[in-house]
Amino acid sequence: METRIEESKGFTVRGYEVMGPVSAIPAEWDRLIKEINEKNVVVEESFGVCLKMENDIIHYIAGLKEELTEGFPDTKEVVIPAGKFIVATVEGGIPGIPAAYDYIIQLEGIKLRDCYDFERYVHPAGVSEDVIEIWMPIE
């Protein structure tokens, strides 16, 4: 699996919140996509931010950088603080996300820091399949 280190300046994600089972996440992505399409927003990237995971309950936001969400109803926001992240490209689409997290966690010499991790979906123009990346905060 391909990984790299990135330094983020920090940014705010605004979108739709899940506090429940992981199975509730797709409905909030559908809601986000509906708003994007209705408002004709040009989106080059979107984010799935994991705020907390405890047992089978996830606190998650499916969203965009805040400047793209003007007029989206009932959104929540989360600030991704500046810092260093290890980034892994997910293989096999959405079903490959857990394997990418497992891969990063098992890497030697990587010390995770206390911050949100997130999925970054890159939507290249003219390509039908997104590039999915996992961003995990590191020291």
Explain what this protein looks like in three dimensions.
The chain has helices at 25-38, 97-105, and strands at residues 3-8, 11-20, 45-54, 57-65, 76-80, 83-89, 117-122, 131-138. With 139 residues, the chain is an alpha+beta fold. β7 (117-122) and β8 form a beta hairpin. An 8-stranded antiparallel β-sheet has the order 1-6-8-7-3-4-2-5. Helices cover 17% and strands 44% of the residues.
Name the features.
139 residues; alpha+beta; eight-stranded antiparallel β-sheet; 8 strands; globular
The parts where pLDDT drops under 50 for at least 5 residues are: none
Order of helices and strands: EEHEEEEHEE
Count the beta strands: 8
Question: What is the makeup of the main sheet?
Answer: 8 strands, antiparallel
Helix vs. strand class: alpha+beta
Helix content: 10-25%
Q: How far is the first residue's CA from the last residue's CA? A: 21 Å
Strand line-up in the sheet with most strands: 1-6-8-7-3-4-2-5
Roughly how many Å is the radius of gyration? 15 Å
Mean pLDDT: 93
Shape from CA axes? Answer: globular
Please give the count of helices.
2
Which percent range describes the beta-strand content? 35-45%
